[in-house]
Amino acid sequence: MKGQPFHRRMGFALAGIRIVFRREQTFRIQCLICLIAILVLALLRPGWIWAALVTLSIGLVLAAELCNGALEYLIDRVHPEIHDEIKYAKDAAAGGVLLTSIAAACVGVAMLIASWPWW
Q1: pTM score of the predicted model
Q2: Using N-to-C axis directions, what is the helix angle for 25-44 and 6-23, rounded to 10°?
Q3: 3-state DSSP call for residue 1?
Q4: Are 27 and 69 in contact (CB under 8 A)?
């Protein structure tokens, strides 16, 4: 795939996002939560710094889930049998998604607290 034009490489990336969106319920739920977060940003208008932090958090959570999906698909293809080390790798990747999700939630809560007059 090296040497492909930019538009083709972009197509590969978008296809990967579509595949994970179709196959992973967790990714779809996270996308819904991200849309809600964007709506909250639009309603509260907390400022550019908070908007950047929330947007960055959204991107990190979705990117972590995409990496988790890629790792799981690869492992399942190369070694479909259950093995302790494979379970550990999958669990570690899922743990990475969990940590980025918790961090993103903390950013969201901090933004809400900083935007206190909204309630």
Answers
A1: 0.89
A2: 110
A3: coil
A4: yes
How far apart are alpha carbons 92 and 69 in whole angstroms?
12
| Domain locations in the chain as residue ranges | 6-118
For 8-43, letters b (16+ CB in 10 Å) and e give eeeeeeeeeeeebbeebeebeebbebbeebeebbee
Find where tokens 């492909």 sit. Answer: 4
Residue by residue, pLDDT tens for the chain (119 residues) are 678 899 999 999 999 999 999 999 999 999 999 999 999 999 999 999 999 999 999 999 999 999 999 999 999 999 888 889 999 999 999 999 999 999 999 999 999 998 877 55
What's the CATH number for 6-118? 1.10.287.3610
Residue 14 CA to residue 47 CA, distance in Å, equals: 30
